[in-house]
Give the backbone structure.
Amino acid sequence: MKLKWESISNVKQNTFLVKLVSATLITFLAFRFFVFQFGQFYPVHVSVNGNSNSQIPPPPPPSVILSDNEDQIPGDIEVEKCDLFSGKWIKDPLGPIYTNGSCGIVVDSHQNCITNGRPDSGYLYWKWKPNDCSLPRFDAQRFLQLMRNKSWAIIGDSIARNHVESLLCMLSTIEKPVEVYHDENYRSKRWNFPSYNFTVSNIWSPFLVQAAIFEDSNGVSSAAVQLHLDKLDKTWTDLFPSLDYAIISSGEWFLKTAVYHENANLVGCHGCPESSNMTDLGFDYAYNTSLRHVMDFIAKSNTKGMVFFRTSIPDHFENGEWHNGGTCKKTEPVSEEEVEMKVLNKILRDVEINQFERVVAEMGQESGNFKLLDFAGMLLTRPDGHPGPYREFRPFDKDKNAKVQNDCLHWCLPGPIDHLNDVILEIILDGRTGK
């Protein structure tokens, strides 16, 4: 009887052990399934100086899960369709994410409006709102995480420099950029964010094609620009294949007096004197010809990166221009009905849109990573965002009636140009395009 009882006891113990092992195995498998299907864990990142950063970044939206260095949403997820470039400016009590002081020496002194004594600050408290969708506030940490081990370049003229400084100021709220390169004249520069191995370059190439420019630091020319319409500027084309992202722009410089060359032959000019015996072809001819070569180069480059072409930005000079007393005194945004784009700005934008649409049609399905940033309408309604007389340090301290040169082309930092980065980050995250 005792033997029988011990046998039954052993059987029960064995049965219990089998059930315990089975339950443990099922629990382990269920946990693994849950983690791989639904979970997302963010690693602790270690910076180059050995300090760990255990801050957990904000989770992505429920419909979009992004892994490290992933730029695009999965192809089988349908996102909200929205024209991010069509909308209006609405009041924003939060204001900019950085200050003129927090950004430091990155900001060009001519755009540091608050330090230069601009008395009003209302222009800082507006944000861009697309008509048909929401536009999240720029998330500098999210941007840097997406750009880990990547390279950017913003290529063009002084507006491109204005834009890159805006981006650097916004990203500096997470990590300060380190300048790692500049050319002889400090026109082209490169910065690095060490903890992310992320580089941002500003490439000075105002025409995008080869040009001999004869002017001083104040923009005063001593001779006409010599412009080779069919030869691209190697300053940017040599770097282009290595880029993960590029924003390319031009425009305003084509309004300057210039002599045009094609196939190594002089073909005409713009703004040249009658005594020159050259044909005045007009700036639109030169811009159209140059952009055709730029667009064709991009189309044939087989780059794997994302390329943006930004339309030229309208100025807001009133009662004159840069050189003859033009000013911009408004302190708030205006409605579309209150402002009209100048004829010259319309011509530049028409050339840009036509050349972009032409090359995209020719590229067909291969044009997916070539996108248009048409900020012309968005910034047209912000005549309040320029330095005006405050491009110089406290211009009215000695004489409140002093006559000073105004800047109604570039943008105060912080200022409206910061919101271009809101739109660009949204395009990268969602694959949305405005056109």
